Amino acid sequence: MSQLASRHLLGLEGVPQQDIQLILDTAESFREVLDRTIKKLPTLRGITVLNLFYEPSTRTRISFELAEKRLSADTVAFTPSTSSVKKGESLRDTVQNIEAMKIDMVVVRHSSSGVPYYLTNCMDANIINAGDGTHEHPTQGLLDMFTIRRKYGKLKGLRVVLVGDVKHSRVTRSNIWGLKTMGASVALCGPSTLIPYDAEKFGCDLYTNIDEALEGADVVNIMRIQLERQQAGLFPSQREYTNLFGISKERLKRLNKNYTIMHPGPMNRGVEITSEVADSDKSVILDQVTNGQAVRMAVLYLLSGRKKEGEEGE
């Protein structure tokens, strides 16, 4: 079995093209499994995976849990509100005590950027980043790329526009690094207050005018406006944001003919995207959710390879 260059998936920045290609190619075979009547494989039998979620999650958590179960891994769910964290236990002590119970892999989501990397210094287990602060969300970036590639048969040469809260979006960052590595052209668009001051480092086209950004684009990936941050006054009102940056049917006329609409969810319908657009035949939003399982199965499988040496012949 081919292996990834790293035994962890902490982000897509710096991940070599061949690794991304391997994950996407492997996900194709697992995507076929999801269409079968029996969707379970014995691939990760004997591997124990801890889902360490310090932040609320619906899609990502369920997607990882299903991916693990479909590969026959043993899974453990961690809930901070019912753990010793409430008694003041540190993150380091929590994970080391759990690892002492013979955990092989950890899927972690945390509000603080860098926690997955920190865990690599505390544990011997494989670490998979399921979203850390405003840093990255690599499996979301991978499933977005996988979904695009399934439609167009390629990533290289496509023009992808990422619209919305670029400043706080970890999904945006993973999409940027992954898409650029695979040869796509990436543009960022949003209010100037939601574009990082150092956005030039991404090497993307930058726009604060949505109509200019959409001109000639193949894919529009709409990032959630994080309404919990609106109290900070980063834009005047939801209504104004919708008028200036919301993706409506009228704005779609600027896109290439065979365009694609994406959204990592959860959606704020009527704010960043209209229901008419979200539910149109050009939308692949629900496909993203299904494809997420296949991509996460691929990541789990490939990272577990170091623990399954010599089992290929079984």
Automatic annotation (TrEMBL):
GO terms for molecular function: amino acid binding; aspartate carbamoyltransferase activity. It catalyses: carbamoyl phosphate + L-aspartate = N-carbamoyl-L-aspartate + phosphate + H(+). The keyword Cell division does not apply. GO terms for biological process: 'de novo' pyrimidine nucleobase biosynthetic process; 'de novo' UMP biosynthetic process; amino acid metabolic process. L-aspartate binds at residues 87, 170, 224. Residues 156-303 form the Aspartate/ornithine carbamoyltransferase Asp/Orn-binding domain. InterPro entries: Asp/Orn_carbamoyltranf_P-bd, Asp/Orn_carbamoylTrfase, Asp/Orn_carbamoylTrfase_sf, Asp_carbamoyltransf, Asp_carbamoyltransf_Asp/Orn-bd. Heterododecamer (2C3:3R2) of six catalytic PyrB chains organized as two trimers (C3), and six regulatory PyrI chains organized as three dimers (R2). This is Aspartate carbamoyltransferase. It comes from candidate division GN15 bacterium. The gene is pyrB.
